[in-house]
Write a structure and sequence with these properties.
Layout: H1 4-53, H2 60-84, H3 88-118, H4 137-163, H5 167-182, H6 191-210, H7 218-239, H8 245-266, H9 270-295, H10 305-314, H11 322-342, H12 351-369, H13 372-387, H14 390-399, H15 401-421, H16 423-438
Helix pairs in contact: 2-3, 2-4, 3-4, 3-7, 4-5, 4-7, 5-6, 5-7, 6-7, 6-8, 8-9, 9-10, 10-11, 11-12, 11-13, 12-13, 14-15
Length: 441
């Protein structure tokens, strides 16, 4: 029989050797991961630099072919990794980049079509490298056919590697997104509707894919990002042209949706959620201010009242400072309502009605959230709205004092009878509600 010391001496070198191998593999994995990220960033930054600066002012048609060559080169790198090195991580990166570059190629085809159809009336960005003028129709047709073929083949290969389970969904979504991207439309009244429609469509697909845990891995996230890339290219391209109020509103609405609602699905980091919350809040307020700038009047006090409503609605969605949102909303509503009733603008006629309505909503919210400031602000607004009509009551009394006196006398007698009959119940209810109110925030 072998002793325990003998067995330990025999096994110990094997364990040390295995630990050394695992440490070596871990170090190698870290180095290769950093190298892949470095290569990824170099390729992306180089492609962006080429699109913005070009090379020696080469013609637009040649710029398309250079981009196409870069796309094919990336796909060639993916094939080398897959079949020569039997390594899938690099293949995913190369084919993912190739699919992303194809969306850029589609955007270039769209620019060629647009410039050809509208000629000298076409809107062109300030960057000369992004302008596509004087491209022959035959060249556009050839480029269009090549891009369409490669879009299907490379997208099929890329999504097969990244997320084969949802290959059909990803392919169809990619086709629809790129069809919207290739439309030769730059008008400021049409583009916002295209962006909004594509955003809603992609968001529904994104929510469906996110429900599968396998699509939350790095490969799944890459596939989901690729199908959304055409949308962001359209947004970026639209910003390079003269922007409209409608386009600004759509972009701000997208920021609100991402920063207030969707960000919670992607991260639990408190700092990211906090920063995103304020970005989304300011974007929501900016939407209304943009609308006032276009259609309203900054001198009208009631024009700012919806800002208080926006803050109150966001209070039920944010993770931080929900009470602060409702506090600011309540005080702002009360201040704006009274300011509107006291000024002499045309909208001051509707101010009392809006004040009473806002007061009722604030009172209900105060009861719901058990917050004193909302409750009391609502009561003050309701009282102020009704007091606004005191002038009409005085006019009625001056015109027919005896009718008003009779009505007031009847009311006083009935009130006295009611108080005497319900004295105990009134005291009990009052005491209960007063104690309840003291326990609120």
């Amino acid at each position: 029989m072998y002793s325990n010391e003998y067995i330990q001496e025999a096994v110990e070198p094997v364990i040390i050797e295995q630990d050394d191998k695992q440490a070596s593999k871990s170090l190698t994995a870290k180095i290769t991961t950093y190298l892949r990220w470095l290569g990824f960033l170099l390729i992306v930054l180089s492609a962006i630099s080429f699109m913005l600066q070009g090379y020696g002012e080469i013609p637009p048609a040649y710029r398309y072919w250079v981009g196409l060559g870069l796309t094919l080169l990336l796909c060639g790198g993916g094939l080398v990794c897959a079949y020569l090195f039997n390594e899938t991580k690099g293949a995913r990166i190369f084919f993912g980049l190739g699919t992303a570059f194809l969306s850029v190629q589609v955007s270039q085809i769209s620019s060629m079509l647009y410039a050809y159809l509208y000629g000298s009336n076409a809107l062109q960005p300030e960057f000369t490298s992004l302008q596509f003028n004087n491209v022959a129709p035959v060249t556009i047709s050839i480029d269009f056919a090549i891009t369409g073929l490669l879009l299907f083949l490379i997208s099929y290969a890329s999504y097969s590697i990244l997320a084969r389970k949802y290959l059909k969904t990803l392919l169809w979504t990619s086709v629809i997104s790129n069809l919207m991207l290739i439309l030769p439309i730059r008008e400021e009244t049409t583009i916002p509707f295209i962006i909004a429609g594509l955003f809603i469509f992609l968001r529904k697909i994104e929510q469906k894919l996110h429900n599968d845990s396998s699509m939350r891995l790095l490969e799944g996230l890459a596939a989901r990002a690729l199908i959304s890339l055409p949308l962001w290219i359209i947004v970026g391209r639209s910003i390079l042209h003269p922007t409209s109020s409608l386009l600004i509103t759509v972009i701000l609405a997208m920021v609100v949706v991402y920063c207030i609602y969707d960000i919670k699905r992607y991260t639990k980091s408190s700092s990211i959620l906090y920063i995103s919350q304020w970005i989304g809040t300011f974007a929501a307020i900016a939407i209304w201010i943009n609308g006032i700038n276009k259609f309203g009047d900054f001198s009208n006090t009631l024009s700012y009242l919806p800002i208080a409503f926006i803050l109150f609605m966001l209070s039920s969605q944010v993770n931080y400072h929900a009470r602060l949102y409702r506090f600011i909303s309540s005080v702002l509503t009360m201040w704006l309502s009274y300011s509107a009733m006291m000024d002499q603008q045309d909208m001051s006629i509707a101010a009392p009605v809006m004040t009473i309505t806002a007061g009722i909503l604030l009172t209900i919210s105060g009861i719901k959230y058990r917050e004193k400031i909302s409750f009391f602000s609502g009561n003050v607004c309701v009282a102020g709205g009704f007091l606004f009509y005191w002038e009409y009551a005085l006019n009625l009394y001056s015109n027919a004092p005896w009718i008003s006196s009779i009505a007031l006398g009847l009311f006083v007698i009935l009130l006295a009878s009611y108080i005497e009959n319900k004295e105990n119940q009134i005291k009990a209810k009052s005491s209960y509600y007063f104690n309840e109110l003291k326990s609120w925030n």
